[in-house]
Design goal:
There is one protein chain. It contains 16 helices and 21 strands. With about 500 residues, it is α/β, with parallel strands linked by helices. The strands form six sheets. The chain has a seven-stranded mixed beta sheet. A six-stranded mixed beta sheet has the order 3-2-1-5-12-11, sandwiched between helices.
């Protein structure tokens, strides 16, 4: 019998599924397991998850990954998570008091509007938190749960209820209710954390309506939080936590100022590392914590969050029936040479960055009898690329460091046509890494750094490798015409609600 190979286990808890992936020292996947969870849509604009189902799936995928690689020694566990999704639970029983309110959910619009109207508008808290008042963020979601559930506010003020984003929920369950904490990247998505000090802001928490007694402790992204209390990982340290988009940035080795990545998932998320400099956006982007290593100054990022990209493909499949699988959209889009003059703007829950327009709703414009299924499929892919271009333009304006290449990851990057469209419209190289599981890899890197499995950031840089690169083959005139058409299409979606 040889010595078991040492690995780090990453729990990647996303919007649609939970995965456990085991990574070796070279950053490559040793084994993995994945399980989807249900999407509950009780009303228009409401999106909920069952936190207990997510916990059960987490345990199942950990067992599945370890069963696929029985001869390994797990040295640490890292967690990456869908960020703003909000759970409130009973500290004594560990039971959620309400369904988890998902980041896409828009039920808190009235709360956000009222807070803005009482002073400062949407930017009331931006100077301190880096965020606009929007339904996207966790603080107003907590307020909604406490307002709607009889007795919940009193219990929260008495310390009987705990709040957390999904990372905190999983950490609590993994440690048997011992550790109630989060990391700075997730805390920076609540509207409740000071970007300078990485501490909670009691005055803002009080104004939004969130009792400080229910908040988790904020810790660095790479640190031993506690140990797993039962199951096959019993005794293994939980040593890294990163919000999923920051985890992908870390996994892509975007560790130096000016480096950026774009994750193509349910939505798109472009993050630009700005180093230890806190860059406050004037062009509709979020200022967020990129990562915070123990004993080092926090590293910040500018982020462009796009609500609907991959979920637009799901809509084409599930709601319209134009395709039977997500992969078919590329084949259908390749059946035509262009969009036929049609544009799809997927403002299903308003528009996120750089517009921040909750009043927008989705539209398909430019239709003629010439337009067919193929044109609409291509327009759906182009919508993802156009929205990314808007965010990159805002980043270039905010950072004064023009993007020179874009590292990409997420489920949609297997679509070669989309990647070519993106390179054409951005006019910079689009680069896909050899290891596509960058979100889970980033969480693994954070945990591995904390326990010495990886010794330095330089080792992480050395692990990153290119799989494929796309370069623009589009004329400037055509690019300008397409982007102008997109802007006209976006204008048609505004002031709908």
């Amino acid at each position: 019998m040889g010595t078991p190979a040492s690995v780090v286990a990453a729990i990647d808890q996303g919007t649609t599924s939970t995965r456990c992936i085991l990574f070796g020292h070279d950053g490559r996947v040793v084994a993995m397991d994945q399980r989807e969870h249900r999407q509950h849509l009780p009303r228009a604009g409401w999106v909920e998850h069952d936190a207990d189902e997510i916990w059960a799936n987490t345990r199942a995928v950990v067992d599945g990954a370890l069963a696929a690689a029985p001869d390994v020694d797990v040295v640490a566990v890292g967690i990456a998570n869908q960020r703003e999704t909000t759970v409130v639970w009973d500290r004594r029983t560990g039971e959620p008091v309400a369904p988890a309110v998902v980041w896409q959910d828009t039920r808190t619009q009235a709360i956000c509007s009222a807070l803005g109207e009482s002073g400062g508008g949407p930017d009331r808290y931006r100077a301190r938190t880096g965020l606009p008042l929007a339904t996207y963020f966790a603080g107003p979601k907590v307020r909604w749960i406490l307002d709607e559930l009889p007795g919940a506010r009193r219990r929260a003020e008495n310390g009987e209820l705990a709040f957390g984003t999904i990372d905190s929920w999983l950490l609590w369950r993994l440690t048997g209710g011992v550790v109630h904490a989060t990391d700075a990247t997730n805390a920076s998505r609540t509207l409740l954390m000071d970007l300078d000090t990485l501490q909670w802001l009691p005055d803002i928490a009080e104004e939004i309506g969130v009792p400080v007694a229910m908040l988790p402790e904020i810790r660095p992204s790479a640190q031993v939080y506690g140990t797993v209390q039962d199951g096959r990982l019993r005794g293994v340290p939980i040593a890294g936590i990163l919000g999923d988009q920051q985890a992908a940035t870390f996994g892509q080795a975007c560790l130096d100022p000016g480096q950026a990545k774009n994750t193509y998932g349910t939505g798109n998320f472009v993050l630009l590392n700005t180093g230890t400099e806190l860059v406050r956006s004037t062009h509709g982007l979020l200022t967020t914590v990129c990562y915070a290593l123990d004993g080092a100054p926090p590293v910040y990022a500018l982020e462009g969050s796009i609500a609907v990209t991959g979920s637009l493909v799901q809509w084409f499949r599930d709601n319209l029936g134009l395709i039977s699988s997500a992969a078919e959209i590329e084949t259908l889009a390749r059946s035509v040479d262009d969009n036929g003059g049609a544009y799809v703007v997927p403002a299903f829950s308003g528009l996120f960055a750089p517009h921040w327009r909750p009043d927008a709703r989705g539209a398909i414009v430019g239709l003629t009898r010439y337009v067919n299924r193929g044109h609409l499929a291509r327009a759906a892919l182009e919508a993802t690329a156009f929205q990314t271009c808007e965010v990159v333009d805002a980043m270039n304006a905010d950072s004064a460091v023009p993007l020179t290449s874009l590292k990409v990851d997420g489920g949609m990057v297997v679509n070669d046509l989309l990647m070519q469209i993106q390179a054409d419209l951005l006019d910079v190289p689009v680069v896909r890494p050899a290891v596509a599981e960058t979100t889970a890899l980033g969480a693994a890197y954070a945990a591995g750094l904390a326990v010495g499995f990886w010794s330095s950031l330089e080792e992480i840089r050395e692990n990153w490798r290119v799989d494929r690169e796309w370069r623009s083959g589009m004329s400037a005139d055509l690019r300008d015409a397409l982007l102008a058409g997109w802007k006209k299409a976006v204008a048609r979606t505004l002031d709908w609600v």
